[in-house]
Amino acid sequence: MREFLYYTRNQRRGILLLALLTGVLLVVGGWLSHRQHKAAVASREREIAFRSFADSMQQLETRARGHDAAAGWRRPPKPDPPVLAPFDPNSADSVSLRRLGIPAWMARNILRYRAKGGKFKKAEDFKKIYGMDEERYRTLAPYLYIAHNDSASRRLRGDSSDNALYTPMPRVAATEKYPEGTLVDLNSADTTELKKIPGIGSGIARLIVGYRQQLGGYYRTEQLREIRLNDEALKGWFVVSDSAIRRINLNKAGVDRLRAHPYINFYQARAIVEYRKKHGALNSLKPFTLYEEFTPEALERISHYVCFR
User: Fold this and answer.
1) C-alpha angle 174/177/182, rounded to 5°?
2) Structural domain of residue 117, as residue ranges?
3) Same domain, yes or no, for 278 and 196?
4) Do 211 and 130 share a structural domain?
5) Domain assignment of residue 88, yes or no
6) Helix, strand, or coil here: 187?
7) What pTM was computed for the model?
8) What is the number of domains present in the chain?
9) Run means of pLDDT, 10 residues per run, the chain, 309 residues
């Protein structure tokens, strides 16, 4: 046994070195194994946390959908498209201006200008509003009018009051007026011809033509009341050829096209389109007599501007 367990000095050094290397390898291997395990645990924890977050978000979305469905929630409608109509920039409110497609910030500029005492004396002054570009002005110009204080304009608007202070502006050239008894076609006269009627100036002429374009034509002179004109003072000058009226095909027009007409609102337009989808082509307005969206007066007005083929 003594001979068996006897090692020379070199052998003992080798055994010691081998034991030292084995110990180093064991320590390094244990450290690497611990590090890999720790990384795997951290990755697993991140994955669990992400799945937990995703599950919680899905549950919140499901609850929100259930709550919205129970409450009858619907997505908010898209912003309404511009509806062009005659307007006076000296009196139009913010709602009317926004309806024309004017941005909210520009409408505020207009109201702020008026609040400080500013006034639009002619249509071209509206072009000077901050942010008003050439394209927008050209779109709005046919519908823009300035209400004057002269006696003829007040009579046409049904205002008999003469107490307002008015200083007439110098005119460059007087427009030749028609003699009494002259008849003008309300559906074909342009602004130049309309201005020849006593009491009608540039603003009122543009107002009449602009509303005529929006309607598609007039079928009686009483419609001038809708733009705040006195039809009694004007009907002696006009004849109405309703054959020139542009009609809307109810079997083809969409909601946006229908609601652009002054006599058809969004709910009426949607009812027409939905009825057409469910029941096929329309032959008359009779089916809508049972709809709460349509009154007899509304159907009578609409009937002059629709066709079915």
Assistant:
1) 170
2) 94-244
3) no
4) yes
5) no
6) coil
7) 0.50
8) 3
9) 70 87 89 83 76 70 58 53 79 83 87 86 83 83 70 51 41 69 90 90 90 92 90 89 89 92 93 93 92 92 93
